[in-house]
Amino acid sequence: MSSPLLSLEDVSKHYPVAAGRGRRGTRGHVRAVDGVSLDILPSETFALVGESGSGKSTLGRAALRLIDVTSGAVRFDGRDVTGLRGAALRRVRPSMQAVFQDPLGSLNPRLTAGAIVAEPLAVLGGLRGSELDDRVDELFRSVGLDPSRRASRPRALSGGQRQRVSIARAIALRPRLVLADEAVSALDVSVQAQIVNLFADLRESMGLAYLFIGHGLPVVRHIAQRVGVMYLGRMVETGAVDEVFDDPRHPYTRALIAASPVPDPRVARERIVLGGEPPSPVHLPSGCRFRTRCPIARDVCAREAPPIVRLSPTRSVECHLAA
Description:
Elements: E1 6-18, E2 26-40, E3 45-49, H1 56-63, E4 71-76, E5 79-80, H2 86-92, E6 96-99, H3 103-106, H4 113-123, H5 129-142, H6 159-171, E7 177-181, H7 189-206, E8 209-213, H8 217-223, E9 226-231, E10 234-240, H9 241-246, H10 251-259, H11 299-303, E11 308-312, E12 315-318
Parallel strand pairs: 3-8, 3-9, 6-7, 7-8
Antiparallel strand pairs: 1-2, 1-4, 4-5, 9-10, 10-12, 11-12
Helix pairs in contact: 4-5, 4-6, 5-6, 6-7
């Protein structure tokens, strides 16, 4: 088995909450991510799923060092990059790129599509003149865009075309890891399929690894090899995609899968209705964080934090009742 390209070791990200008007200090912390570990292998797609507010995007940004972690370690290609700053961090940046949910918000509206893709090649790649133009044309073709669209500004492009420009910019410096943070959520269904297939094609042709964050479980099942389920800052279940989707062990995972529609009226699926709203990440429940909504919670779930149960070398679940 090859060594991980990206390793997160007990990573936490806590945000202080101000005490309020006229008061100093803090009244607590939002535990956006709280002690999460994961490995991503070269050329692997690892997906994160969970409700809004579960900590998926925070974990993804911490993995790429877009934000500093409160505790824990981030290792990229065997190197600890947790404390890198300035020039040392900039040298790692070309190998770790991102594609975000809203391409219109992540693209500079003042620049043409060609200039957006050319910028990292000129600044970090040192390309100039015809060599730069040829590389931009090559990137446009590789993501399914006609090079004639180089002169268009983002607002003149469709949503799918904008996202293709974002992907072209992300792969311009031949990265090894790409964070796809809800990268297809804002697109039409037909365009989603095109972009998901593009991600898969680029993984095969370039050997890319992805940290793919999404809500659509069918998309996740199609694109990912492994999946992690997050709830209130914790990774409650991980494993191979088919294992987790066909035999979910955590009650929260079961509820997520049950809520995903099946495009076949003949298929009956158990309905699992979770009560209430997720607890405040500032005032977390004792014991298991999911117990206040869990349909199978027991007394032990309130007294003790659940253990991480290893079901196999690649499968784990955080639950008292998972064994």
